């Protein structure tokens, strides 16, 4: 778990560096080797690692627009994922999805960049598991800003009424872009939403990855044993802006500082030391993680950009013999 | 471009230039001062000032009661705008990216767009739905669409797409004063954001006073005799650039900015086509069943005998891809527009 967390943290720090290449001094979102928006998850590591450590490859995870730490913890191929973020041909999605839309069927991982819209597909994966009598489960991750969205609330209800093996994990980083949680909901503890659907709800109100581990274990075992869905809310922290380039002018300085001080990685390291893990061991884990990340980034940057003709592939699994754009347009030439 | 700037300067007698976002906000602020029933709500529109600077400064002047941040609950707050509008207020509600319409489309097309008709005209829905559209910055399939055709296809909504600061202000005044629901689609690349540089065209002189631009009046942004280019949004500027590149080769293209899709100014298109006989339609929306087909159909219905060649450029019916090389391939470029004009001219 510690290794997943340090991998995820270093990954975001390195991506931050790579993202800013070519975008300075004046920040231009479309310049540089990594284009588009980039939502980094530094400070969220405990939720991805503490939950996914209980999962197998055949368990499904859906992640939101801030997915890297979850993907890493779920075992998504780091090199291919990085190539995807760089928009390269050998990326997970052949350069078509990008950082908010990572898909890896090998470990049953998918994303949606639309708030809360990963919840219904997780319910569907759980439905499939139940119908097929397997003991695999599904986990949907979402931010605290997403819990006022119909897609989330409808998913809770459907999962509950059908006793589906799905766990919903709210990552509460206190901020939905510029909107603090207390200005968008009167219910401070998001896990209380579970009560309205008669399912267990638990909030992990600390920076304690071990507590996340324990709450997730309970919920995932319950799902695996056929006892239905659960909801967990994990307090995490947004150590960077909502997206890269977000100056966070709306956010009090003290809040940013607090987010940086409350570090679940440091806390877990302290716990491990208390249990006899040496500093050398921790250093070794960290170095191994950094090496893996550096290697993935170096590999990704060497990968070729997709050929423009690739743009027309994969619209369908079984492409119709003749598409509507055949013949009439410049763009439609294949 | 020179023609365009001169025309606007003459029309407005001002040299004060604004970005499109500032022009849009100026109109909103003017209407909010004049009419207490106008208010703005959306995600990150208060303290943040709109992710694409659609509301910069409004919170300071009007306070939280009239510039409201709302939860990420588009069904609830867009539907609430419908209800407030039916109660006689004039809400402006922002859908942060047009791509997010999916989570609230029922409120948009079953309530907002239809209640006037279904009530036999006894209810009006005088609201503005503002929304950011468009790609060119590699944000992939869920954050890069324009969906012009989707909104224009469904009856009951007026659909506005400004391409310059001057148009953005006049169209916003018209939108807020209109008694019907207006979908006001602003292209991110045109707003004049520091972090997403605009082409030079959208920043134009803008009069200090309020003024309206009537819906259903296309604007001929460049006059020409050889080929008619009909377009909107970002591609007005790409088409103007293509047209100026072709000047040296003696090709004289006319560029028509539709400005509003509903209502659509068919006459301006037909007049131009009758003159040039050649029509190119350029759109940043999906090609099939959309704006390009509609314009060509109207040209065929109204001026078939005058047409000698027709062509269209649009997103070739694929979701918007992420990688730069792929997005550049599918989003009609200046070069592709120039090549298409040249081909029509031959």
Defining traits:
heterodimer, A: 334 residues, Rossmann fold, 6-stranded parallel sheet, B: alpha/beta, 5-stranded mixed sheet
Task: Walk me through the structure.
The complex is a heterodimer of chains A (334) and B (346). Chain A is of the alpha/beta class and 334 residues long. Chain A has a single domain, classed as 3-Layer(aba) Sandwich (Rossmann fold), CATH 3.40.50.970. Chain A contains ten helices and eight strands. In chain A, helix 6 (150-161) links the parallel strand 3 (138-143) and strand 4 (166-172). In chain A, helix 1 (2-20) crosses helix 10. The longest helix of chain A is centred in the last third of the chain and has 24 residues, at 279-302. Chain A starts with a helix and ends in a 32-residue tail after the last helix. Residues 326-334 of chain A have low confidence and may be disordered. By secondary structure, chain B is α/β, with parallel strands linked by helices. Chain B folds into two domains: 17-205, Rossmann fold (3-Layer(aba) Sandwich), CATH 3.40.50.970; 219-345, Rossmann fold (3-Layer(aba) Sandwich). In chain B, 38% of the residues lie in helices and 20% in strands. Chain B contains 13 helices and 14 strands. Chain B has helices at residues 2-12, 20-34, 58-62, 74-86, 105-112, 115-118, 148-153, 165-177, 234-247, 266-276, 291-303, 324-330, 334-345; strands spanning 17-18, 38-42, 67-69, 90-97, 128-133, 158-160, 182-187, 204-205, 219-222, 227-231, 253-257, 260-262, 278-286, 309-315. Chain B has a seven-stranded mixed sheet with strand order 3-2-4-5-7-6-12, sandwiched between helices. In chain B, strand 2, helix 3 (58-62) and strand 3 (67-69) form a beta-alpha-beta unit. In chain B, helix 2 runs parallel beside helix 8 (165-177). The two termini of chain B are 24 Å apart. Residues 1-11 of chain B have low confidence and may be disordered. The interface between A and B is large, with 59 and 55 residues.
């Amino acid at each position: 778990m510690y290794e997943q967390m340090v991998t995820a943290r270093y990954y975001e720090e390195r991506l931050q560096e790579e993202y800013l290449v070519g975008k300075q001094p004046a920040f231009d979102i479309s310049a540089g080797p990594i284009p588009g928006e980039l939502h980094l998850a530094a400070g969220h590591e405990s939720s991805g690692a503490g939950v996914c450590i209980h999962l197998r490859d055949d368990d499904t995870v859906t992640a939101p627009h801030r997915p890297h730490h979850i993907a890493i913890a779920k075992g998504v191929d780091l090199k291919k994922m990085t190539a995807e973020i760089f928009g390269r041909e050998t990326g997970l999605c052949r350069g078509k999805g990008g950082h908010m839309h990572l898909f890896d069927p090998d470990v049953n991982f998918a994303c949606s960049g639309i708030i809360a819209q990963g919840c219904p597909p997780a319910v569907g994966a759980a439905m499939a598991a139940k119908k097929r009598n397997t003991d695999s489960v599904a986990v949907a991750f979402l931010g605290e800003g997403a819990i006022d969205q119909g897609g989330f609330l409808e998913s809770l209800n459907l999962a509950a009424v059908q006793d589906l093996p799905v766990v919903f994990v709210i990552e509460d980083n206190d901020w939905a872009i510029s909107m603090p949680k207390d200005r968008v909901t009167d219910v401070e503890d998001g896990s209380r939403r579970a009560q309205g659907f008669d399912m267990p709800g638990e909030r992990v109100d600390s920076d304690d990855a071990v507590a996340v581990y324990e709450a997730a274990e309970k919920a995932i075992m319950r799902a695996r044993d056929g006892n239905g869905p659960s909801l967990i809310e994990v307090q995490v922290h947004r150590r960077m802006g909502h997206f890269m380039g977000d100056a966070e002018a709306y956010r009090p300085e003290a809040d940013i500082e607090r987010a940086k001080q409350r570090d679940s990685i440091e806390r877990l390291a302290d716990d491990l030391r208390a249990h006899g893990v040496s500093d050398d061991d921790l250093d070794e884990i960290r170095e191994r993680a950094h090496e893996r990340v550096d290697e993935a980034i170096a590999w990704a940057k060497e990968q070729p950009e997709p050929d423009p003709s690739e743009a027309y592939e994969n619209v369908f699994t079984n492409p119709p013999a003749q598409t509507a754009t055949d013949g009439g347009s410049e763009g439609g030439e294949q | 471009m020179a023609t365009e700037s001169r025309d606007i300067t003459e029309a407005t007698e001002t040299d004060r230039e604004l970005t499109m976002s500032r022009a849009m906000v100026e109109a909103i602020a003017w209407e909010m001062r004049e009419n207490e029933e106008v208010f703005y709500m959306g995600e990150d529109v208060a303290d943040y000032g709109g992710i694409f600077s659609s509301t910069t400064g409004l919170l300071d002047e009007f306070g939280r009661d009239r510039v409201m941040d709302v939860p990420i609950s588009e069904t609830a707050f867009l539907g609430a705008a419908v209800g407030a509008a039916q109660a006689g207020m004039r809400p402006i509600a922002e859908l942060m990216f047009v791509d997010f319409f999916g989570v609230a489309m029922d409120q948009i097309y079953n309530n907002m767009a239809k209640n006037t008709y279904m009530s036999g005209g006894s209810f009006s829905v005088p609201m503005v739905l503002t929304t950011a559209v468009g790609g060119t910055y590699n944000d992939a399939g869920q954050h890069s669409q324009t969906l012009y055709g989707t909104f224009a296809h469904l009856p009951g909504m007026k659909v506005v797409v400004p391409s310059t600061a001057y148009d953005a202000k006049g169209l916003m005044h018209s939108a807020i004063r209109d008694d019907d629901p207006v979908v006001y689609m602003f292209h991110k690349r045109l707003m004049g954001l520091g972090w997403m540089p605009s082409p030079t065209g959208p920043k134009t002189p803008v009069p200090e006073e309020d003024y309206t631009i009537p819906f259903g009046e296309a604007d001929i942004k460049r006059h020409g005799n050889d080929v008619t280019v009909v377009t909107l949004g970002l591609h007005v500027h790409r088409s103007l650039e293509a047209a100026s590149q072709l000047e040296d080769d003696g090709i004289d293209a006319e560029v028509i900015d539709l400005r509003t899709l509903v209502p659509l100014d068919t006459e301006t298109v037909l007049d131009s086509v009758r003159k040039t006989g050649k029509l190119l339609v350029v759109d940043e929306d999906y090609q099939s069943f959309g704006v390009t087909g509609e314009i060509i159909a109207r040209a065929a219905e109204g001026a078939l005998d005058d047409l000698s060649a027709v062509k269209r450029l649009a997103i070739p019916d694929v979701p918007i891809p992420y990688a730069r090389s792929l997005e550049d391939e599918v989003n009609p470029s200046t070069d592709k527009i120039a090549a298409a004009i040249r081909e029509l001219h031959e």
